[in-house]
């Protein structure tokens, strides 16, 4: 496991990503900005009139078994591919019922019932992803999920989020905002 990376997302008038669309899926929304920046830093530079910022950190895996780790490692690709000019930042919070469950029951809901990892694997390597945890940072969300893909994969990405949102796992999600982004090639 590489050292955790602290990542700060800042919404405002400037940044490498243009905000194309922002949808409140559940719970309270966030103000809509024109642009978004992602900084791999806990003390990012100012971006002018900041509208909001969210922080998260990469971490060790919680639920993935050895075989799944190997399958993911064999096909996933990293962030920053030149053709990935589309991205999604999807901040997510899960409810107290989820956090009160023991680890093994959470794994069973995430994978044996909901097939989160199996479904996700079908979308690799077209989608590159990074999961940021923020529950322990006192942030308003538990996770900042980040995805990058090429424009021709945009429709398939919709299939992916639709498939996950009808799972048993998602009945524990009580706040979710779907922010879609693009950048120039
Ligand atoms: C692109 C395909 C995807 C793959 C391969 C994938 C894979 C995974 C894996 C392996 C984990 C477990 C990490 C661990 O063991 O701790 C995970 C967690 C998570 N994923 Fe995905 N995922 C995908 C897409 C998505 C999408 C589209 C969303 C949001 C709409 C999402 C939201 C999450 C969240 C919130 C967690 C944390 C769950 C928790 O710890 O309670 N994933 N994902």
Compact overview of the structure:
With 185 residues, this protein is of the alpha+beta class. The protein has five helices and eight strands. The mean pLDDT is 96.
Q: What features would you describe in this structure?
A:
This protein is of the alpha+beta class and 185 residues long. It is built from 5 helices and 8 strands; from the N terminus they run ββββαβαααββαβ. It has helices at residues 66-75, 96-99, 103-113, 116-121, 154-165; strands spanning 6-12, 17-26, 35-39, 52-57, 86-94, 128-133, 143-149, 173-182. An 8-stranded antiparallel β-sheet has the order 4-1-3-2-8-5-7-6. β2 and β3 (35-39) form a beta hairpin. The protein is globular. The chain starts with 5 loop residues before the first strand and ends with a strand. The model has no long low-confidence stretch (mean pLDDT 96). Bound molecules: protoporphyrin IX containing FE (HEM). Protoporphyrin IX containing FE binds at residues 61-64, 90, 92, 94, 116-117, 120-121, 123-124, 127, 129, 131, 143, 145, 160-161, 164.
Percent range for β-strand residues: 25-35%
| Largest beta sheet: strand ordering | 4-1-3-2-8-5-7-6
**What's the number of helices?**
5
State the end-to-end distance. Answer: 31 Å
Rough shape? globular
Give the beta-strand count. 8
The helix fraction, in percent, is: 10-25%
Task: Decide which structural class fits the backbone.
Answer: alpha+beta
